[in-house]
Amino acid sequence: MERLAVTLAAVACIALLLSAVGRFKRLEPNRKQTWYIAACAVALFAAGSGMLVIFGLSGCGGATEAGLTWDWPW
Amino acid sequence: MDLISGLAARYCIRQDARGFIELWGLVLVLAGAATATRATWWRGTLACAILLTGALAAAIFWACAASAPASLGTVAANPYGRNLDAMICVSSHAVETIDEWISIVAAFVVAIGLIALGIFRFRKLPARGFAFAAGAVLLLFAAANGGLLLVGLSWCHSSRLF
After folding, report:
1. ipTM strictly over 0.90?
2. Residues of chain B positioned with their CB less than 8 A from the CB of A33
């Protein structure tokens, strides 16, 4: 779970950085929109991946069961 | 969701988590590109790619989740008959299939983009020639990969190589 939390935190920082570039840099409105879209895509990726991993891990609180192994996807 | 279906769904997500996360990333990249562009035809192309990617993800998940109880021996009878072989073929090679699909979609989208640039943007002959040639090569690559994907799945299904 620590690995998941660190990964999600890193992706959230990337999303914040992208949106900060769009907010504070002097760009045309179209260019600003592109940065905001990229920030939203990164944030959605983190949210969706986190939900997938948490769903896959749910119910794994008990003792180890033969055949039901889990290894992190990265 | 009953207990076996719930276990099967979690088993399939755990088994192919990397592949599903890659597909989710692909969908978001395509959706972002479709949102950022104004050309209607380009949006339509990307929307088709998104729909096909979603259909692939759903098919892989269903093939795994539906066949997991029978293939793990947790149910007495196999309700799918010979189709179980095809489902196990799809689910046991899910990550490879997904990686190949991503390369096909990426090659196709870049090819269409290069050809569109050659038609609408580039004016000089060398640039146009390069754009069309590169687009053709990428389209051939995508078609060849698509053919290999279908051949691989058919071969697995027919020979039960698992």
Report:
1. no
2. 36
